[in-house]
């Protein structure tokens, strides 16, 4: 399972970047763009923070 962890991360980040590109190319207002950008970006930063400083498994 851990062998595919990096691929899964790459896939999730790729989807977020695709979503950001779509949001910023849309004709929506700046406020809507910022809200959708936060929705797409914050979960990724939370996951990275958990991965770097979260709980460690003990053997």
TrEMBL record:
This is Cardiolipin synthase N-terminal domain-containing protein. It comes from the Bacteria. Keywords: Cell membrane, Membrane, Transmembrane, Transmembrane helix. It is found in: Cell membrane. Residues 15-55 form the Cardiolipin synthase N-terminal domain. The chain crosses the membrane at residues 6-24, 31-53. It is a multi-pass membrane protein. Coiled coil: none annotated. Pfam families: PLDc_N. It comes from Kangsaoukella pontilimi. One of its GO terms (cellular component) is plasma membrane.
């Amino acid at each position: 399972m851990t062998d595919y962890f990096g691929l899964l991360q790459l896939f999730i980040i790729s989807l977020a970047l695709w979503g950001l590109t779509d949001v910023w190319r849309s004709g929506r207002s700046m406020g809507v763009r910022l809200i959708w950008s936060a929705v797409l970006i914050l979960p990724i930063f939370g996951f990275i923070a958990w991965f770097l400083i979260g709980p460690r498994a003990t053997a």
